[in-house]
């Protein structure tokens, strides 16, 4: 291992050791600290309630699904999709694959049946290159894919929560989302690290559900 890589590894390990959300995740049996991002978004936006049908895009390792299933209860349904297989979560229906692939799309459609989705949650992120413009473009593609999925599956009063990266392209992405939903707002939960460029868009009521 190069000295530069070893230094990054040590810095990451030290940051993890000091991170209060890492400790809280271990104490609460969440799979990652990311669960607290959704929890804080939920507390601000009142996203989840018992009986909801929720689709978790890019679910692995599963902390968002863990939190969501605790909120929708036994009458709710969580469908989690990711290219990586994750350890089973009671009450969560897992689909392994890329939701953009036709085969996975059909499997997802079957899992949903004829019921429209109440909430789409997406913590998707691309494999980062370190080149900001490249990473932002890749992230934008994922966000817009989540938007298109939401347009097809959400109820008229449904909502989408999706991560995006702040930067030069963020304004145009937010404007694009505003054309697809009646309302949208940006949130940065406290559990997102201060140095991170990640934020979340909470968009409600897809325009397609309002008619032409």
Summarize the structure in words.
This protein is an alpha/beta fold and 212 residues long. The protein folds into two domains: 1-29; 31-210, Vaccinia Virus protein VP39 (Rossmann fold, 3-Layer(aba) Sandwich), CATH 3.40.50. The chain is built from seven helices and seven strands; from the N terminus they run αααβαββαβαβαββ. It has a seven-stranded mixed sheet with strand order 3-2-1-4-5-7-6, with helices on both faces. α3 runs parallel beside α4. It is globular.
Question: Approximately what portion of the residues adopt beta-strand conformation?
Answer: 15-25%
Helix content: 40-55%
Write the H/E string, N to C.
HHHEHEEHEHEHEE
CATH domain class of the largest domain: Alpha Beta
List keywords for this structure.
Rossmann fold, alpha/beta, globular, 212 residues
Nutshell version of this structure?
With 212 residues, the chain is α/β, with parallel strands linked by helices. 42% of the residues lie in helices and 24% in strands.
SSE blueprint:
Blueprint: H1 3-18, H2 20-28, H3 35-45, E1 53-57, H4 63-72, E2 77-82, E3 92-96, H5 102-112, E4 117-122, H6 132-153, E5 154-165, H7 170-178, E6 181-187, E7 198-206
Parallel strand pairs: 1-2, 1-4, 2-3, 4-5
Antiparallel strand pairs: 5-7, 6-7
Helix pairs in contact: 3-4
């Amino acid at each position: 291992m190069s000295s530069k890589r070893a230094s990054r590894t040590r810095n990451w390990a030290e940051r993890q050791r000091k991170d209060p959300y890492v400790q809280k995740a271990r104490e609460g049996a969440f799979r990652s600290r990311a669960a607290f991002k959704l929890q804080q978004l939920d507390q601000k936006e009142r996203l989840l309630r018992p009986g909801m049908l929720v689709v978790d895009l890019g679910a692995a390792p599963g902390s968002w699904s863990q939190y969501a299933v605790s909120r929708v209860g036994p009458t709710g349904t969580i469908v989690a999709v990711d290219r990586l297989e994750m350890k089973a979560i009671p009450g969560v229906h897992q689909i392994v694959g890329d939701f953009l692939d036709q085969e996975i799309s059909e499997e997802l459609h079957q899992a949903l049946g004829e019921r429209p989705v109440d909430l789409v949650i997406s913590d998707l992120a691309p494999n980062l290159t370190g080149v900001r413009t490249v990473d932002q473009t890749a992230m934008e593609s994922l966000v817009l894919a989540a938007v298109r999925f939401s347009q097809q599956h959400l109820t008229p009063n449904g909502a989408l929560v999706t991560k995006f990266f702040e930067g030069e392209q963020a304004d145009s992405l937010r404007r694009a989302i505003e054309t697809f939903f009646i309302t949208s707002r940006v949130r940065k939960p406290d559990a997102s690290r201060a140095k991170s460029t990640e934020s979340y868009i909470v968009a409600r009521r897809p325009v397609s559900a309002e008619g032409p």
